[in-house]
Amino acid sequence: MRAVSRIDDLVEELGAACRAAGWKLATAESCTGGGVAEAITRLPGSSAWFQGGVVAYADEVKVALLGVHPQTLSTHGAVSEAVATEMARGAANKARADLGVGVTGIAGPGGASPGKPVGTVWIGWSGPGGAIHTRLRRFEGDREAIRQQAVEAALEGLVCLARDKGIAPE
Q1: Would you list the domain boundaries of the chain?
Q2: What three-state secondary structure class fits 13?
Q3: Residue 131 burial by CB count (10 A; 0-12/13-18/19+): exposed, middle or buried?
Q4: Residues 159-170: pLDDT tens digits?
Q5: Are 151 and 35 in contact (CB under 8 A)?
Q6: Among 4, 66, 88, 95, which residue has the least CB neighbours within 10 Å?
Q7: 86-141 pLDDT tens trace
């Protein structure tokens, strides 16, 4: 329950910062399965600043709905900095939002590959003016724990962007 209250606190901070700046937000999620968007929409009044989100689990959906380039996927793989960047940028552009976040990773228990163990998560944030920030995170625990940690990390970065602080340290 502790993780949920931390996530709820982050969403409240994010909402206040977005309202103060007059910014809109969009999400693009793979391994979190819409967890960031779900956390945001738990907050009453989030429709004032949350445009919407895409759960892009399949590569084809990343391409079709978010504008991720097929070449990026074939060169770097779905769990990569390049794909997280394109997901974040695509979410913001498609939703006409000021802020975007893209989350892609391996929540497990399967799906690991050499150099990309279970718990590997790339998060990309698109800020006002299209500035991109990314972080590679290595989370531990079971599937649910990894997904919750990824949601929390995505929200922490959004709060920092919305408050014009850059990106939260790793």
Answers
A1: 2-162
A2: helix
A3: exposed
A4: 999 987 665 544
A5: yes
A6: 4
A7: 999 999 999 999 999 999 999 999 999 999 999 999 999 999 888 999 999 999 99
